[in-house]
Amino acid sequence: MYREIQEALQAAGEDEAVVCAVLTGAGDYYSSGNDLSNFTNIPPEGPQKMAAEAKDTLKEFVGTFIDFPKPLIAGVNGPAVGIPVTLLALCDLVYAADNATFHLSVMSLGQSPEGCSSLLFPRFMGPAQANEMLMAGVKLTAGEAYERGLVTRVYPKSEFQQKLTENALHIASLPPMSLQKSKALIRSSMRQQAARGKRGRVPAAGGEMAV
Fold it and tell me: Does pLDDT of 51 surpass 90?
């Protein structure tokens, strides 16, 4: 799934007919996080090889979000858990249904925040509010996520799909080059910090990605 999402975003980024991209969930949930059973299948080469491969996959996956040149919209249609929550900070617009929740379970799993969340969450929430999510694992309601700046707008569940479509179509009606140039300007400082993290120049909380 990591590879498939990465490939879909890369294709959308290169397709001149695509003005913006929308990520949303199927069914009642936006995401359930990683299938933890994947981490119990240790290859014959040992856990070090598995960890190295997972690190490379994660760096490439998150890098695709950082480098995506067009407006990226997240439609959080229900409860969201794990890395799709941390990646919301790399989306340009985040719309949520009023039944959505936002939960990071990295601490309880003995891991550290990924998806550039340790860089970006404190930037727009403030350290105290961000740490409650990143370190204490507090689950946020849609309203709380909106108040903390993680969500752009909250809609009633019954209206959510219609509003998400309307907002995406509005963005898609705007001049594509202006949108891309504006995104590049808005995201320039974040991209520079994340790029330095890729090269190992920024301390990273979970890899070399400044995540």
Answer: no
Buried b (16+ CB within 10 A) or exposed e, 145-171: bbebbbbbebbeeeebeebbeebbeeb
More confident residue, 54 or 162: 162
For 123-139, give the DSSP string. HHH-HHHHHHHHTT-PP
Tokens representing 72 are: 């990226």
Rg of the Cα atoms in the chain: 17
90-118 confidence digits (pLDDT tens):
999 999 999 999 999 776 676 778 888 88
Q: Please tell me whether residue 97 adopts helix, strand or coil conformation.
A: strand
According to CATH, what is the number of the domain 2-34+45-167+175-198? 3.90.226.10
Task: Provide φ and ψ at 117, rounded to 5°.
Answer: -70, -30
| Predicted model pTM | 0.85
Cα separation, 169 vs 19, in Å, equals 10
The encoded tokens of residue 143 equal 């309203």
